[in-house]
Amino acid sequence: MARSYRTDIDGLRAIAILGVVIHHAGFSALGGGFAGVDVFFVISGYLIGGHIFEDLAAGRFSFKRFYLRRFRRIYPALVTVLLATLIAGWFIMLPHDYRYMGGAAFTALLSLSNVWFLQTIDYFHPEAAHDPLVHTWSLGVEEQFYLLVPLTLFLLWRWRPGWTGGFLLGLIGLSLGLALATSGEYRMEAFYLLHTRAWELFGGVLVAHIAHNRRPLPPQLGLLASTFGLGLIAAGLILVPPLAPWPGWWTLPAVLGTALVLLAGGRPQPITYLLSLPPLRFVGLISYSLYLWHQPVFSLLAQAQLWPVSTPGLLLVLAGLIALSTLSWRFVEQPFRRGASLPIGRRAVLTGAILGITALAIGGHITRGFPSRVPADVQAILAYDKSYAPSYRSCIYTRKQVPGLDLDQSCTFPSDTSHPPTVAIWGDSHAARLAEPLGVALGQHGLTLRQLTLSSCQPVPDLINIGQTRATQCPAFNQQVLTYLAAHPEITDVVLFATWNNFLFARSGPDMHGNEKDDGFYSVPLNGAMPDTPAARHRAFGDALANTLSRLGATRDITLVLALPRPDISIPRHFAARLWRGADLPQTAGFARRHADALGQPAFALFSDAIARSGLPEGRVRLIDPATMFCTSDSCDLIRDGKLLYSDGNHPSLDGIALMLPALVDAIRN
Fold it and tell me: Quick one: CA torsion of 476, 478, 480, 484, rounded to 10 degrees?
């Protein structure tokens, strides 16, 4: 017997999509709004599982019919959004971004965009907001799940139907266990891939199995379960701390809450009435189109520098998004879902759109984003994103390389010298940007530099970074560096350089426009008690830094370079977009010094205190502040004499590095 249509599920969909859209629109109060995707996963598992169980029980299950229904449900609207985004992006997006968006569009057609984004972008990095198709990762997970679940349930139904519930529980436990075990150290793999997401979808299938084989919950128990479940969903959307491992323990409230509402709903009770209210039902009905359209609209508006800065403007954007999604649901989703088969005309349109997406994606990859779309002067500004030394990519280590490193094989500069290194630079990617130019400059004075750098790793042993993928590799690398330096006393000078403020403070910004937010990324002691306040965490950082200076300074001189002022907005993209839209490139441009000082001054005080507490003789540690080179008393330069000083939102360009070299060379030589 077919199940009756559950209007409360439309309300659940509405809560899920509103969480996602509000979060992506920038409302910080809904810090866990992305958990709406997890609510969708449970709903999808429930609906798909319910249809399969019904068809199996009626003896009418067909793989062909199942996959045809999935195709007609997913692909027409997806293909429409992909093609429209590629067309709009042609007029808005810079070549690099357009090229990678084409890759996302093509892999979305193949149900592999989650794998694509795993290789290209950190979902929780601010740059993810610039990608119009980053949200399609979830469709990849669902579509991969759809390849797995029909065969699994079909075989269980045929051979061991009594094992179904236990088997599903086992799959849920296995997938959840993998998620909990890996989402801290391997954050993006856990976030994007099916094996750590399947438990959410299988949770919905298990609820469908229970509903198919059991009587409904008693009214009072059903009311309690649905009320508690809705509360859990709300908690999951609101209370998630920044950079919580995901999926992980904080994912459980939204998933369990959705399962409880699905298990208890479908009958007259207050929660069912609430979720069936017409406004919620309407948003739920258009939720798929709304999900597909929201990220391209938000991203392209931002890239076109049309993102509203006022609440009324944002509400207008949201209203337009609802209207667009309604049209998509009415004139794309519904026509392709109705009827026993697709008319030839609709098939032709769909095929043509898929071919168009493929052509733009492949062409964009080959041409590197159709750069001829933008003038030569714009391309010249964009080329600053490659303004780093030739050795940068090959000489910086990644976390995957840390086990088994031989630091004797690390890069030295000048590379053509026979002199053994007497100077080492130790730090993160900022130190790696500096290594070759500094080594070449030192080579003019008969000195050789060895590069000891690991991406996103501050050169302070005994610290570990919260919210970082493969976080344990940073302290492991730092210990290897200490061991190496102990074995090489001929290295008499060490330069320590990193974007320190990123590790020290649990917030990003203020950026060049004054915007800031908590990001949940910071360093804590590797061993010992977790600091319970920001002040305690800062003291622990200072203690670890003072100890590092003491260990190094016993036999060496140290040049400690503070963090650069960070605009935190890609400077080449910012000025290239303005130039493309008719503005002139200024000879000099900057941002307010007070934004750089918001974190720079507390960091300066902490580092000065750590030097004082290191117990080293005066002059053994030279503290260099790049702000003295980049900034005046009022502003910090982004462009000086027509040259960009940054290659992205924080790394210095070669022109920016040139400002730093004289002071560094003098400090090391003297």
Answer: 180
List all residues 6 or more positions away from 212 whose beta carbon is below 8 Å from its beta carbon.
50, 53, 54, 57
Q: What is the DSSP string of 136-154?
A: GHHHHHHHHHHHHHHHHHH
pLDDT in tens, 238-288: 988 877 889 999 999 999 999 999 998 777 788 989 999 999 999 999 999
| Residue-by-residue DSSP string for 614-635 | TTPPTTSEEEE-THHHHB-SSE
Q: Do residues 190 and 179 touch, judged by C-beta distance below 8 A?
A: yes
Report the 10 Å Cβ neighbour count for 144: 19
Q: What is the DSSP letter of 309?
A: S
For residue 463, report the phi and psi dihedrals to the nearest 5 degrees: -120, 150
Taking the alpha carbons at both ends of the chain, their separation in whole angstroms is: 87
Residues 6+ apart with CB under 8 A from 40: 13, 16, 17, 138, 291
Q: Over 80: is that where the pLDDT of 340 sits?
A: no
As a whole number of angstroms, the distance between CA 628 and CA 604 comes to 12
CA 415 from chain centre, in angstroms, equals: 36
Task: Give DSSP secondary structure letters for 89-157.
Answer: HHHHS-HHHHHHHHHHHHHHHTT-HHHHHHHH--TTSGGGGG-TTGGGHHHHHHHHHHHHHHHHHHHHH
Residue 160: φ, ψ to 5°: -140, 65
The model's pTM: 0.87
Fold (CATH) for 386-567+593-634+654-669 = Rossmann fold (3.40.50)
If phi > 0 it is left, if psi is from -120 to 50 it is alpha, else beta; for residue 339 that is left
* Virtual torsion, Cα 258, 260, 266, 272, nearest 10 deg: -70
For 109-164, the pLDDT digits (tens) are 999 999 999 988 766 655 666 789 999 999 999 999 999 999 999 999 999 888 99
The mean pLDDT of 415-435, rounded to a whole number, is: 93
Q: H-helix or E-strand containing 599?
A: helix 593-613
Q: Which residues on adjacent β-strands are paired with residue 494?
A: 424, 558
Q: What distance in Å separates the CA atoms of residue 418 and residue 544, rounded to the nearest whole number?
A: 35
636 torsion bin: left (phi>0), alpha (psi -120 to 50), beta (else): beta
**Residue 493 phi, psi (nearest 5):** -135, 135
Residue 490 DSSP code: T
Task: Identify the residue whose tokens are 């303004």.
Answer: 387
Helices 252-264 & 219-238, crossing angle to 10 degrees? 150
- Residue 174 pLDDT: 97
**Across 341-348, average pLDDT:** 85
Query: Two tokens at 50?
Result: 């319910």
Q: Rounded CA gap, 60 and 75, in Å?
A: 24
pLDDT, residue 1, reads 43
Ranges of each domain in the chain: 7-299, 386-567+593-634+654-669
Reduced to 3 states (helix: H, G, I; strand: E, B; else coil), residue 319 is helix
Which residues make beta-bridge pairs with 522?
A: 466
Q: Report whether 20 contacts 37 (CB < 8 A).
A: yes
3-state class (DSSP) for residue 560: strand
- Please give the distance of CA 354 from its chain centroid, rounded to a whole number: 28
